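hey
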């Protein structure tokens, strides 16, 4: 019933299409959405965005109406 909680992968390296290799990335808060915070990962060398991630807020921090 319980999935193993999806560990927040702190991506250390992602593939950059421009550098054509796995590169260290910079994490940047892009958007704050109602369902979570959106982070953007960009290549430290050329700044190309290589991925993004939606970090969902802890459900306990939300007000739940039952
Ligand atoms: Zn790059």
């Amino acid at each position: 019933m319980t999935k193993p909680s999806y560990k927040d992968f702190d991506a250390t390296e992602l593939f950059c299409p421009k550098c054509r290799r796995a590169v260290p990335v910079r994490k940047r808060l892009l958007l704050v959405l109602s369902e979570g915070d959106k982070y953007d990962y960009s290549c430290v060398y050329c700044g190309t965005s290589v991925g993004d991630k939606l970090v969902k807020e802890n459900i306990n921090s939300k007000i739940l109406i039952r």
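Residues 13-56 form one domain. The mean pLDDT is 80.
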